[in-house]
Prior knowledge:
The protein is of the alpha+beta class and 670 residues long. 21% of the residues lie in helices and 27% in strands.
Amino acid sequence: MRFFIEEGALIARNRHETLRIEAWGTDALRLRATLNPAFDEGSGVLEKPKEPVLAHIQIEDGFASIENGKIKASVNPSGVLSVYRDGVRVLHEYHRNYDQTVTKQSVTLKYEPREFKGIAGGDWRLKWRLESNPRERFYGMGQYQEPVMNLKGSFLELNQRNSQVSVPFVLSDQGYGLFWNMAGTGRATFGNNLTEWSADATKGLDVWICAGSDPKTIVETFTEVTGRPPHMPSDLLGLWQCKLRYRTQKEVLDVARQYHERGIPLDVIVIDFFHWTRQGDWQFDPVYWPDPKAMCDELHSYGIKVMVSIWPSVDKKSVHYVEMEELGLLMQTESGANQTYDYQGDCVEVDVFNPAAREYIWNVCKKNYYDLGIDLFWLDNIEPDLAVYDYENYRYYGGPHLECGNLYPQLMAKAFYDGLKAEGEEDVCLLTRCGWAGNQKYGTVIWSGDVQSNFETLRTQVMQGLNMGVAGISWWTTDIGGFMTDDYHDPAFVELLERWFAWAVFTPILRLHGTRGPLDIEPLSELDYGGGYLYTGHDNEIWSYGEEAQRVLKKFLEMRLALKPYIEGLYDEAQRTGLPLMRAMFLEYPDDTACWDLDDQYMFGDRLLVAPILEAKATSRLVYLPAGTWKRFGTGEIVEGGRTITMACAIDEAPVYEKVGGKENGKWQR
């Protein structure tokens, strides 16, 4: 290796590879490697640090190192990288190629830590290998529909799907965070024998690593360089009413009037899909929505904001398809027919990598929704949902899907964020089904997608919300009751709904949504398009499940409204620091080793410990209370912590304890 210093960065060169390591934020380094003649910014989202950092670089006796506060990286004569936190090695590249100074294991395997394989006519397939610490724990990475929170031993695809949100930032209990700053498809494997990251197509390796005195500091440092959320309006912190689907203007107004007459506060009502003429028209079907402006005016008079669903799919029969195709504003396929989505139509999705396409879709939605009084936008299907997840067959203005596709949901959000800001909107809030690292800066509430209605799913939702928070996504929510319900009158489902609602009170957004089966309601029209087409689910309002369920849900809604000042404070903290509202126990209690293994309870901010009931017919559960004094929320019962207790919890009780007084702040010795 040949080492030298260039513009404050450590450069290492050997044969065709150039390695560049530089300070990038507080206690953080950015590592890049390429076989190309020069570095390309690629598809990442790292923002330049606001304050320049001068790193300490040393080159001596064939070795080189760069140090920035708590973090240090060293490169040996074979080009093998090691990373240290406060002098303790926490990362070491996996090298098995005739260098006995690097490993005591076999050196004859000819494994290189950074493996570039050329793609014919283009870029590289990349594997980055690291030594594994079998005792290490990993958290973050976004949202995967798996029943685990500690990701050690997991194989994760770096791809977006309905209910899967790839946010490739991982936090280790060894005191560091690592961000894979590459938005192409790939894989991350946290094996016991090897940690391996891979990219299907890239121009080079681009990784950001930080060290921290505690896990909260690591999350704060990560959001320093990827962005933090804006201000959340306080009038969105109550109930959001939604179902699949309100089919007419009259249905929406009837529901809103009932909430108003019953004296049940409602913050948002949501108009779901197929209210339009065709996909890609982005307009109300006038047959069923004759006067959206008057509808919005009446809803506003009740203090209710109006949200409408937007899909990125454009039917080839849409009024906009031909123009958008001619202007190059739609996705491309590498082979075969130019179709990317086939649900209820022959569709191609908008190419949001093209700034002109983002401007186009916003301008249409501004005219047909915003100018009529629509307040909020629900960006659904924006993974994008594809007919077939053949990622290699899609291309954008910004390059092939393999190289940049995971950024699609963020750019869709950016289109509406930029449009709303240009209209003078101070506080932007968007509901989205997907996102990537940094999505938080565009005011997106990411929800967990079309999940099933059962207790097994409810349990995994808790884990997923916590891992999303670790990955910097502080605004997150779910469909209360799950999305896919077979029989909405089944007592077992009503119990699930009540337990889910009790938990959702202590999440960032309280939102009733789902398809309430059976799907036996006749369509309004015999046409195969338009607002009267397609099925709908049964009622999904607070009063839809009987008097007892209504009493329970109203009680929890009142609890939520009473908590608004506390929740507003958590949103303000997220804006300042990037910390999530839902916090894994170890974020608040890093020195308590028991908290690193808890995946079914969490802290809502720094004072409320939430332990939802996650099993059918259960009336109690075990709860671990860290050291200190705790008060049962709603009853005032005082309990001393530092132990596991049995918490009784009736169907109308909050599964929550409040911390009494201050908490101990340790130094997190792992």
